[in-house]
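#lab-general

N.A. 3:47 PM
ok so I finally got the sequence cleaned up, no stray characters, all 280 residues accounted for. can someone with queue access submit it? mine expired

B.Y. 3:52 PM
send it over

N.A. 3:53 PM
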Amino acid sequence: MLILNTKEEIKNNIGPLKEGGKSVGFVPTMGALHEGHISLLKRAKEENEIVVCSIYVNPLQFNNKEDFAQYPRLPEKDTILLENAGCDIVFIPDDSIINKSPDFNYDLGYLDEIMEGYFRPDHFKGVAYIVKTFLEIVGPDRAYFGEKDYQQLTVVKKMTRDFNLPVEIVSCPTSREKDGLALSSRNARLTVPERQIAPKIYEGLIFIKNNIHNYNFDELKLKFVNHIEHEQQMKVEYVEICDSESLKILSALSKSKCMVVCTAVFLGNVRLIDNVKIFS
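B.Y. 4:20 PM
back already:
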């Protein structure tokens, strides 16, 4: 497994492989890897001859400096995990990968005004900028993203279409613990008592899914909030029922063939996001 740190090293190593007809799969991450990331890498290995994984904690997508400072960084452990999983190339750039003041006035429109976009100003601008940068450097045939960050996945799909980037964005199902908690690097920050009640988030989402025809949407969201906030350590930031393609927020059952329920919940000082799809 190669560990590369610069754009030039990436282009010098991947260029000849692509010229030789090798297909390239790309898994961008911020490190602190878990089985969810590894599942993306395994999917990439099944569908490509070469797999590249990046590790970069992108400061542009953190609107909370404390969250950025506390984000776990485990490069040595991460590289061992990737090598054991069969990764071919790991790209670990420094902050020269970004401009100090990137001139990236990409308009995400509605996606930047709801849910994560509303509560984390400029977050998705930072995401779109760094993903576009990595895709242009690596030049993969396919790039793999987990559905846990559903709004981010929707942003990435829109961005690649808008900039006509020649890459297929592959969405992969959320990986979960046995009790339903979505795998996340932030889970490592939960205390033992917090970890025990964290599955309530998934329980609440499943309640909405199972009762989508039994209550109106306002009632479902209120029941979700009450279920979560029954635990004093937990606070719902948002819960919305959206069209799964456009992410337009729905107020009632519509013609959408598929909906997605998205939420962000604070558990102590840790902010966790999750979602479930509902097929109508």
